[in-house]
Amino acid sequence: MNATITDPAPAAPWHAGERQLQAHIGMAERMAQVGAKVIRDYMPDQHRTFFEQLPFVVAGAVDAQGDPWAGVLEGEPGFLRSPDPTTLRVAAVPDADDPLSAGLGAGQAIALLGIELHSRRRNRMNGQISAWDGKRFDISVGESFGNCPQYIQAREFFFSRSPALRFPGVGHERAALNEADRALIAQADTLFVTSYADTEPAGRRVDVSHRGGKPGFVRVDGNTLTVPDFSGNRFFNTLGNLVINPRAGLLFIDFERGDVLQLSGRAEVVLDSPEIAAFEGAERLWRVHVQRVRARPGALALRWRFNSYSPTALATGHWPGAVAA
């Protein structure tokens, strides 16, 4: 297939939940015009090259119970390949103890977030698994679009071991957070969230997104997490999904130790409440009432260190970049 594709300016890609929130802020007409220009059904060459240089990608999928999960697929750069603009080939699968694995297989909907922490670049691709052999898989592109760098903490990566050396745990699942989980969340400056909506005629649309803030930006109250939603691109991919289907899967990473905390639970969106003012800069809130927990110590071969300016960003709260996603 020719890598140069002329966009035929399709109809706006937003579903009812996204349109509802865009209308709530008075941006429905504007976003109808924007969506047709920025959401593609193929990967531009720049995105194809970007994914191929990554050492990891965040993936989102939905298990047989209908619960969404976010997880990490990692490998030496080149483990992601795009043989043509409508296909991404992934030479990695989740560990056996990773709940993400329950949502993957031929014909399943999947979302990928390619994020390069040291450059603070990110691009997203949602689609369907078109080929699967248990060791690698192909994704047929459904939606491809970019995001800006704001709220991404810059970190340099390195491998603590070969990503081919896997150490799956026993995979115990819990129904509630413990103190170690809460401590990790309380100091986190980054999370990833999977959401999805079943729409007609598009079918299941899964999305995985990044959220960031100063350490402690997520409030923990027992088994309920409250997340501020800052000024963004007005796509409302995540919150629009949660309006239609109030389920979310969260991923927290201990970047120094390679520990992974994966959560799934019931979600709600808070658009109008005095509580919003308690979160500096927030325009709205969303919550996850945690119902399923999987903690996987040392699951990742990757580790990250802050780059030279991140400590300043942490201390001052000044985040480089333009608009949040």
UniProtKB/TrEMBL annotation:
Pfam families tied to this protein: PNPOx_N (PF01243)
Q: Which InterPro entries match?
A: Pyridox_Oxase_N, Split_barrel_FMN-bd
Q: Which Gene3D superfamilies match?
A: Electron Transport, Fmn-binding Protein, Chain A
- Domain Pyridoxamine 5'-phosphate oxidase N-terminal, by residue range, is 178-286
Q: Which domain of life is it from?
A: Bacteria
In its UniProt entry, what is this protein called? Answer: Pyridoxamine 5'-phosphate oxidase N-terminal domain-containing protein
What is the organism of origin for this protein? Achromobacter deleyi
List the top taxonomic levels of the source.
Bacteria, Pseudomonadati, Pseudomonadota, Betaproteobacteria, Burkholderiales
